[in-house]
Amino acid sequence: MAVITYRDALNQALREEMQRDPNVFLMGEEVGVYQGAYKVSRGLLDEFGPMRVVDTPITELGFAGVGVGAAMVGLRPVIEFMTWNFALLAVDQLVNSAAKMRYMSNGQVGVPAVFRGPGGSALQLASQHSQAFESWYAHIPGLKVVMPATPADAKGLLKSAIRDDNPVIFIEGEMLYNLKGEVPEGEHVVPLGLADVKREGGDVTIICHSKSVGVSLKAAEQLAKDGINAEVLDLRTIRPMDTEAVLTSVAKTHRCVVVEEGWPFAGIGAQVVDTIQREVFDELDAPVLRVTGADVPMPYNKQLEKAAKADPAKVISAVNQVLYRE
Amino acid sequence: MTTKVVMEALSPTMEEGRLVEWKKQEGDAVAVGDVLAEVETDKAVMELVARAAGTLLKHVVEAGATVPVSELVAVIGEAGEAVSEEAGKRGGGEAKRDSGTAGQADSGAAGQRGSKDSQATQPSPGQNRPVSMPPAPPTAAVAAEQRPSAKPPAREGNGAKAAPGRVKASPLARRIAAERGVDLVGVTGSGPEGRVVARDLETAVATAPVSSRPAPSGATASAPLPRRPADVPYTDVPLTQIRKTIARRLAQSIGPVPTFYLTSEVDMERVAEAREALRAAGKREGGEAGTDAKVSFNDIIIKAVAMALRQHPACNSWWQDDHIRYWNEVHVSMAVAVEEGLITPVIRHADQKTLREIAAESRDLAARARERRLKPEEYTGGTFTVSNLGMLDIDEFTAIINPPETGILAVGRMAEKPVAHDGAVAIRRRMRLTMSCDHRVIDGATGAQFLKTLKGMLENPLALVW
Predict the structure, then answer these.
(1) In angstroms, rounded to a whole number, what is the distance separating the alpha carbons of residues B42 and B18?
(2) Residue among B101, B142, B201 with most chain A CBs within 10 A, to mutate
(3) Domain B221-465's class?
(4) ipTM entry
(5) CATH code linked to domain B3-144
(6) For the whole model, what pTM was predicted?
(7) H helix runs in B44-157, sequence order
(8) From B138, B143, B174, residue closest to A321, measured CB to CB
């Protein structure tokens, strides 16, 4: 199996889906001539031409709206936001148009569009460009939210997202684009709504997604040296959430820590914890703890930025607490 | 930072304990799990262990003192650390804790803790924290909403004993306790603020014959008394209507446990011969370890009872109010007279043990019972009891069933008697067994069949190894 980057895995998924279905097209800022701000669309303009790889002006609300309209009349647009920080301008189209159309047209008009781009923080991009917005979109009925953590999942989930008949918010990890991993060639499709056990263990469940999967796996490795066997469960799709996988794992380990990059208040972890305490209360041997980004705008200062992020040490500390080891 | 050592509830019913002897002296280094002192409870002499590491700074009570559960007995801290006045005083409030560490930098929490300390000069016995409770401020790693400042103040110092009747336990611990019939009152919690967590139940009942695994439903559907399904210690069978009616009517008739008695006289000649042969063989082997010849009649009876119970699961059962628990494991309790009363240490898996193992174990258990050094798990969890008053020259007697067990065997003395044997009157050693049966579970014929099997085994001891 070929070992390629997360970036190239996404590129493969786009190319294969555009080859497979002439209704699929890519639109966004710098996706064509510049081949993508993060080079995800490398080579696509040459292969598919300017009708299917469309450069737009810096008008997020505008091209998101064009995407919704195109989807309503039968095309399958993939709308790239240079980052999800910039997509704030397009939220009206995403929430009030894309998410509502099927419901408000009594099922007559769907929006089979994918809105994709990098989310979360990178390194010293400061408060306005270091934000994890998945909980915003996961809050909206009518939107699916997908966040791959590995190259293989990036390819398989993007293909599923493009084929899905509903609007999908596809949030990539800005720090994951260079991550390498084995990716099956050709038809590799990962269904939406299925979590994945990235590491099996019996002592504690660490639930995570996107960048926090790597953080959790590092913590799990460290814990293993201490004799603690952590199960790392990657949600992959935030909404619809694979509650069965979550509950099965927690029922097995009886202890749980939920890790995410975003802010704590009303975060993804809050939803996970709600499900756990409601469905498997009698399985819990400790309160479920959350490890999140600090509840502040992301500092620019390098040391403060480091301190504000969820990292393996914080995950280990939370695991030790739910295991009553500290 | 100092941590307090309190008198722990070391038995399910313990309300106070007498500190018999300090095993660690002031100034000694202690690790978690070290035995700090021996404590005499209402049932046994138990060990009080350290739940924090450091140096034993102070004995707050002297050896010999009787101390209510959850009262301070000692202080552990760093070597040379001063013991603050309130921490070193029995009946004082919160232990003084260093609130300046990095993990507690949250100013709200520190302030709260500080004000609590300043109030601590007023004694408030209910607020002792067992030493097993670290202050547990979630560190900076944990989301801000989980910081202690968000906690209602009432939770501070709300120790295990703060609210009588309400034991703090994790949901999982509660479920396991319910499944195993363990009373959480008296289980020492090792979690924050004395919370009982799953691991506390592991140590409490690890050796008890219990399991949280449900019996396979298929097994119970096909046969009411399944014989030894693999890997399942017992099988719970819901009460049938007729069983319910029997239980209700008989209980109305003679009391909470409707008991009836069955007596059978057993010819012990061959058991006595076998025992003498074993003793002689042991002596020839020189009484080396492992060839101990001191097998008693009671050991042989326990072994025979265990083997007979295997064949009669109805007598190896617990009455559980709304269902009957048929044990697939055999754990024989043996009544041992001790100075203040009696106690029933348990020979676990007695059916699977050799006579030699049973002899050694029963001697050890009886000796430690008399010294009151049994651990709770050593005198709970039996599935049937044997009580023997033969050595006190009692011909026969009736014993009281120890619920939830449903049967008990009262063993009388063995005595030479003229009996008809092989067509002639002969002097034979005979012994009377009386079984008390809980009629809610065991019917007359059921109990009689068990006794018949037992009698057969004793009259033909080779059956024990058959």
Answers:
(1) 9
(2) B142
(3) alpha beta
(4) 0.74
(5) 2.40.50.100
(6) 0.52
(7) 107-119
(8) B138
